[in-house]
Backbone:
C-alpha cells in the first residue's frame, strides 16, 4: 500500500470500528424492549463493521508517509461519506419502513448534525433507533470540531487558516499539538453533554429523553425523540435548557479551554463571539416585538418562543417549540435569512459562520479606503491577527461557492416538482445544516418524507457539502485534484 494513503485507510477503518461499536447501545435498548428486528439489524451491522473496519485499519498499519494536502482532502470528504453510508445500514433493516434513499438521508442528516428527518411517528419508534439518531449527531458534533480545528486550517478551507493551532504549518509540529487539543476538546464536549443531560433531568425529562436530547443539543443537531421536538417539554422548561446549551455549543471550544486556564475574558474578546451575540440579541428582539404585535403568542411568552426558535435556527440546531410558518411572512423571511448565519468557528454549529461575514465586511471596508487613499498601507486586522490576502480570497471564495450551490440546488429542486418556498428553504436548510425548512411540507410541523427520492438525494448531497465547508467537497470532485 502506498505510504501516502496509509493514514487515510487507517483513519477510515478506525472510524468505522468506532461507529460500529456504538451500535451496541441501540442493540441493547431494542433487545431489552423486545424490538427484535431492530435489535438484530444493529447487532449484525456492529459485528460486520467492527470486523471490516478493523481489517482495513490493520492493513494500513506500518510506516506512514506525511499527510499530503491531497490526502487531507480525501480523508476529510471520504471519511464522512463512508461513515454516513455505513450508519444507514441498521436504519435500512430496522423494520421502520425506510428504503435506501431514506436511510442514507437520515444517517447523513444525523452525522452532519442537520436534523432534517424522514421518519414519522417518533413517539412510537424503537428506543434503539431513536438513540442511534442521537449518537450519530453526537459523533458528528465532536468530529466537526476536531476537523475544523486540526484539519481545515492546514488545508486553507474557507478562511479557516485564521484558526491555526500553531503558527507553523508543518505537519511535524501541528499534528502532536492538534492531538492534545482534540483530547481536551473531547473531554470538554463530554462534560457539556453530561451537564446538559443532568439539566434536562432536573426539569423532569426521563433519563432516556434527557440523554438523547443532551447529545443532540450539544451537537446542535436537533434530532428529537418526539414529533413535537423540544416543544413536547415546553411545560417542564425543557426549551429553556435547550436555549442555554445551544448558545454554549455555538461558541468556540478552544476559547473554552483557554478560559478554563484562567483567561475567561478571551471569550468576549473574540470578535466572532461578540458578532454572534449581536446577531442573536437583535434577531430575538425583533421577533419578540413582532410576536407581541401580532399576538400569535401571549406577551409574556413571546420572548421565549422567539429566543428558542431564533437561536435554534441561527445555530443550525433545528429544535422547534412552535410552527414559525404561522408567524407571518416577516417572521418567515427572517427565519430564512437566519439560516445563513451560523455560530462561531470551532463550535458544533453550521452554515456560513459569523467570522466570514466579518472578514468580508473588513475586505469591503479596506477596498473603499484604498479608493479614497490609494497610497495608504493599513494591514487588515481581525482581533489581534493580521488577515492575509490569501485568507480574504479563501473567505470570498467560500461565500461565492456557498451561494452558487444554494442557487443551483434550489433551481434543481424546483425543477423536480417542489414548490418555490419548499425548494428555496429546502436548499438553504440542508446546505446550511439547519434542519426544518419553511412551508407545510418541510416546516417545523412537517418532515422530509413526502419529497420525491431525487429531491432527497440533492438534499443529501447538500448536507455533506455544507457540513464539510463546501470547498472541501468541491476540490475533491475537481478532476485536476486527481492529476499530477
Residues:
Amino acid at each position: 500500500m502506498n505510504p501516502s494513503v496509509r493514514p487515510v485507510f487507517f483513519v477510515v477503518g478506525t472510524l468505522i470500528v468506532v461507529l460500529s461499536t456504538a451500535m451496541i447501545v441501540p442493540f441493547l435498548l431494542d433487545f431489552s424492549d423486545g424490538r427484535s428486528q431492530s435489535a438484530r439489524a444493529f447487532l449484525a451491522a456492529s459485528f460486520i463493521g467492527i470486523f471490516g473496519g478493523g481489517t482495513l485499519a490493520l492493513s494500513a498499519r506500518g510506516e506512514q508517509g506525511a499527510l499530503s494536502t491531497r490526502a487531507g482532502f480525501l480523508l476529510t470528504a471520504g471519511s464522512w461519506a463512508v461513515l454516513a453510508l455505513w450508519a444507514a445500514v441498521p436504519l435500512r433493516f430496522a423494520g421502520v419502513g425506510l428504503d435506501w434513499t431514506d436511510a442514507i438521508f437520515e444517517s447523513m442528516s444525523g452525522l452532519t448534525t442537520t436534523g432534517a428527518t424522514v421518519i414519522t411517528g417518533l413517539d412510537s419508534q424503537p428506543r434503539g433507533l431513536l438513540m442511534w439518531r442521537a449518537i450519530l449527531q453526537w459523533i458528528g458534533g465532536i468530529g466537526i470540531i476536531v476537523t475544523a480545528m486540526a484539519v481545515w486550517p492546514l488545508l486553507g478551507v474557507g478562511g479557516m487558516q485564521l484558526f491555526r493551532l500553531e503558527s507553523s504549518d508543518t505537519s511535524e509540529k501541528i499534528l502532536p499539538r492538534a492531538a492534545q487539543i482534540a483530547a481536551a476538546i473531547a473531554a470538554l464536549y463530554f462534560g457539556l453533554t453530561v451537564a446538559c443531560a443532568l439539566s434536562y433531568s432536573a426539569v423532569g425529562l426521563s433519563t432516556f429523553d434527557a440523554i438523547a436530547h443532551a447529545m443532540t443539543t450539544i451537537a446542535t443537531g436537533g434530532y428529537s425523540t418526539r414529533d413535537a421536538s423540544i416543544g413536547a417539554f415546553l411545560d417542564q422548561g425543557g426549551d429553556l435548557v435547550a436555549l442555554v446549551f445551544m448558545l454554549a455549543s455555538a461558541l468556540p471550544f478552544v476559547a473554552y479551554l483557554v478560559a478554563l486556564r484562567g483567561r475567561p475574558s478571551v471569550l468576549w474578546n473574540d470578535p466572532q463571539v461578540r458578532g454572534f451575540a449581536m446577531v442573536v440579541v437583535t434577531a430575538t428582539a425583533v421577533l419578540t416585538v413582532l410576536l407581541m404585535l401580532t399576538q400569535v403568542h401571549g406577551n409574556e411568552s413571546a420572548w421565549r418562543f422567539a429566543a428558542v426558535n431564533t437561536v435554534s435556527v441561527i445555530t443550525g440546531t433545528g429544535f422547534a417549540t412552535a410552527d414559525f410558518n404561522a408567524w407571518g411572512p416577516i417572521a418567515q423571511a427572517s427565519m430564512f435569512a437566519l439560516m445563513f448565519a451560523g455560530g462561531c468557528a470551532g463550535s458544533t454549529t453550521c452554515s456560513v459562520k459569523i467570522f466570514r461575514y466579518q472578514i468580508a465586511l473588513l475586505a469591503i471596508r479596506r477596498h473603499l479606503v484604498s479608493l479614497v487613499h490609494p497610497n495608504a498601507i493599513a494591514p487588515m486586522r481581525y482581533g489581534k491577527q493580521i488577515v492575509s490576502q490569501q485568507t480574504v480570497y479563501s473567505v470570498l471564495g467560500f461565500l461565492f461557492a456557498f451561494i452558487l450551490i444554494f442557487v443551483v440546488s434550489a433551481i434543481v429542486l424546483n425543477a423536480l416538482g417542489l414548490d418555490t418556498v419548499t425548494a428555496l428553504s429546502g436548499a438553504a436548510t440542508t446546505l446550511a445544516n439547519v434542519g426544518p425548512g419553511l412551508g407545510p411540507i418541510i416546516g417545523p410541523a412537517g418532515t422530509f418524507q413526502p419529497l420525491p427520492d431525487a429531491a432527497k438525494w440533492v438534499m443529501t448531497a447538500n448536507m455533506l457539502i455544507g457540513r464539510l465547508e463546501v470547498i472541501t467537497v468541491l476540490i475533491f470532485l475537481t478532476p485536476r485534484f486527481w492529476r499530477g
The first helix runs from residue 6 to 22.
